Prior knowledge:
The chain folds into two domains: 13-58, no CATH class; 60-158, CATH 1.10.1900.20. The chain is rod-shaped. The protein has helices at residues 6-11, 15-27, 34-37, 39-78, 83-92, 99-108, 110-126, 145-158. The chain is mostly helical.
Amino acid sequence: MVFLSITNFVRCRGPDEFWRKRRIFRLAAHYIGRRRNCYSIAVRNVHRALVYATKARKLKKEDMKDLWTTRITAACEQHNITYFTLKEGLDRANIMLDRKSLSDLASWEPRTFESLAAVAKQKMVADQFIDTVDKNNPTGVNLNLRDVMLDVWLKENKK
Length: 159
């Protein structure tokens, strides 16, 4: 860029300012009114939005953990077992499944989850472990591993 006078040179701050503002305006493109067009207002709103986005990434992870735990607890109550007993029984049986996997099984494959719950309960009975963490007895159907596996075997042989 060629400047014919020194006053024009002083007024121009160079390409750095253009690209700095351009980045802010690009992030504020979906805002309405002066929040999108006026730089001093746009920069405040963009910085606030970036702070919220940073916090939200951590909160999303916590929300998903809570959702998975709630789904597993609900499925455990259907099978008359507590969440602690399920996790402890699966750990003792060397079945390493995380919350997400157990939640997906509880939601989309209830028969598989029922078998896992029966395995966990059977392992806890075999180890003579008493669940003292949760004194409330869940309301649901009592599980027996032999019955769960026998039902599947009978259904396969009838076909």
